[in-house]
């Protein structure tokens, strides 16, 4: 009797242990399955995100190319007068002719095409044209000094003041603070023009009266940026004074005084060139380069010119990077210059082969 009970109890215990085991195992199974499902879902999400990023990147490349295409429509008309229908290979002479039509200097064309065959493929030409922009910007964007001081120079009418407004607008949109210095104190209208833009974009500006010392404006703008912890300083300058010597001396003084306000400033001296002047703008840039040294170029008014090919000569002859191009008079009409996109948008006009 007793042993019967004992046996029964033992059986119950075994059953219980078995039940618990089954419970445990099934819990484990559901847990690992859940984990697996979760893993697969996250993996899918990550893949989707990556795909989305790729699409956005592709779109923005296309957008940039589209932007170039619109800005370069007059240049394209000239190119297409030489090669009206897209081809797989284009004759050497035709390429030469269309580059001349686009206002690329002959010397540069010879250099770019040296050793190419009679019939040229897209790939061959692309490589040579992109090479002309070998003077790429070497700015470490992740490690800019604060404030980052840019001095804008160039002749009157080139588009300095408008470009400053565009740069300020872009900087602000990207979430960085910016202050402007109205350093073209030679003309009252120039101070007013920059002040109007500053109000429109809603950024601070330091200005004085016409005829006052431009280098003092530069000093005050940088000091103000330091005091208020502002990320960027952009300083306008005069493009013409009574004499070229006066202009040269004034620019040199501004550069020196910037350095007094902040060690290492100005960090970039940017030359603004009027794109409608094509290759003649190169001589201007050389003159300014001799005065104060230039770190990079912004070419304006690309929208109104058939001389887009001059960008090749400008960058190559001056051995300087092109940072941006201006494609209109509004604050958003500024595109970051990319040699790849620029060259591709030209080649898209004449070659059947995709990139
Ligand atoms: N179409 C076009 N006009 C521009 C561009 N950049 C500037 N301008 C115009 O060129 C003229 C001179 O510009 P401004 O900024 O005053 O030149 P600054 O004398 O060098 O300061 C103005 O009428 C601007 O609107 C551009 O990218 N495209
Ligand atoms: Mg101006």
What would you call the quaternary organization?
A: single chain
Helicity level: 55-70%
- Strand tally is 10
Distance between the terminal alpha carbons, to the nearest Å?
Answer: 92 Å
| Major beta sheet, strand line-up | 5-4-6-3-7-8-9-10
Structural class: alpha/beta
Order of helices and strands: HHEHHEHEHEHEHEHEHEHEEH
Bound molecules: guanosine-5'-diphosphate, magnesium ion
* Gross geometry: flat
Q: Please give the largest β-sheet.
A: 8 strands, mixed
Q: Any idea what the radius of gyration is?
A: 31 Å
Please tell me the overall pLDDT: 88
Strand content: 5-15%
- Pick out the low-confidence regions: none
Number of helices: 12
Structural description of this entry:
- It is a single chain.
- The protein has 355 residues and is an alpha/beta fold.
- Helices cover 57% and strands 12% of the residues.
- It is built from 12 helices and 10 strands.
- The strands form 2 sheets. Strands 5-4-6-3-7-8-9-10 form an 8-stranded mixed β-sheet, sandwiched between helices. Strands 1-2 form a two-stranded antiparallel ribbon.
- β7, α10 and β8 form a beta-alpha-beta unit.
- α10 packs parallel to α11.
- Guanosine-5'-diphosphate binds next to α6.
Which tags fit this structure?
355 residues; binds magnesium ion; 8-stranded mixed β-sheet
């Amino acid at each position: 009797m007793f042993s019967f009970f004992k046996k029964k109890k033992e059986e119950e215990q075994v059953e219980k242990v078995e039940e618990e085991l089954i419970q445990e195992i099934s819990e484990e199974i559901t847990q690992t399955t859940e984990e697996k499902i979760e893993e697969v879902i996250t993996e899918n999400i990550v893949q989707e995100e990556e795909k989305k990023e790729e699409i956005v990147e592709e779109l923005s490349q296309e957008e940039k190319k589209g932007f170039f295409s619109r800005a370069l429509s007059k240049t394209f008309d000239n190119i297409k007068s030489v090669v009206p229908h897209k081809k797989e290979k284009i004759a050497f002479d035709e390429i030469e002719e269309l580059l001349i039509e686009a206002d690329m200097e002959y010397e540069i064309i010879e250099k770019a095409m040296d050793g190419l065959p009679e019939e040229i493929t897209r790939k061959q030409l692309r490589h040579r044209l992109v090479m002309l922009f070998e003077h790429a910007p070497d700015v470490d964007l992740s490690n800019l000094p604060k404030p980052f001081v840019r001095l804008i120079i160039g002749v009157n009418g080139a588009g300095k003041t408008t470009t400053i407004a565009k740069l300020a607008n872009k900087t602000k949109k990207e979430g960085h603070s910016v202050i402007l210095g109205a350093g073209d104190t030679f003309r009252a209208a120039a101070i007013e023009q920059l002040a109007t833009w500053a109000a429109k974009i809603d950024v601070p500006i330091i200005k004085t009266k016409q005829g006052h010392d431009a280098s003092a404006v530069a000093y005050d703008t940088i000091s103000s940026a330091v005091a208020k912890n502002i990320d960027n300083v952009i300083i306008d300058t005069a493009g013409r004074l009574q004499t070229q010597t006066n202009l040269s001396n004034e620019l040199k003084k501004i550069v020196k005084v910037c350095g007094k306000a902040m060690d290492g400033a100005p960090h970039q001296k940017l030359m603004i060139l009027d794109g409608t002047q094509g290759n003649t703008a190169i001589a201007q840039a050389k003159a300014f380069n001799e005065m104060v040294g230039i770190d990079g170029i912004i070419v304006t008014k690309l929208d109104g010119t058939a001389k887009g090919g001059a960008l090749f000569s400008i960058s190559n002859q001056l051995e300087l990077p092109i940072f941006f191009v201006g494609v209109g008079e509004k604050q958003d009409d500024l595109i970051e210059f990319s040699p790849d996109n620029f060259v591709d948008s030209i080649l898209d006009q004449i070659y059947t082969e995709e990139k």
